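Collaborator request, handled under Task 6.
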Amino acid sequence: MHRVNIRSSNGFTFLDSLLELLALSVMLPLVVLFYLFSSHFMLDLDSGATEFRLFTLELQQYLDGSEQIYIMRDGKGMRIVQGAIVYDIELYGSVVRKRKDQLGHEIMLTDVKNSMFRLEGKRLTIQLEFQSGAKEEVDYALALPD
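Structure tokens returned to the collaborator:
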């Protein structure tokens, strides 16, 4: 009978390499999955996209109670009339700002390179281009009085 000396390291280099290859083949797909997950997570943390979503939600509140909407400054802004209150939302420099009754202004969106406000019937379309090169577009169906 042949005795195997367990304390000897002869012959274990091939088995060791096979085990390392097996471990590597298990870990590499996990690394790829982690990378894909983290890239989607980083997109959700993009402050520009979040800021745009908040801008669209805030703008929806002003449009809900509006009586009249006008496009001004060759499509760079719009005027919303709610009773006796007038809101001007326009691109000024690199920010989209809101002015209430021509008094002061509040910044609604930053790092904007270009904007286009269009009103076609009862449909408002806003196209924005950001300094980063990203482009966003939002459409609103308006419930304006006849």
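The cover message to the collaborator said: "The two ends are 103 Å apart (CA to CA). Helices lie at 12-44, 47-64. Please let us know whether this matches your experimental observations."
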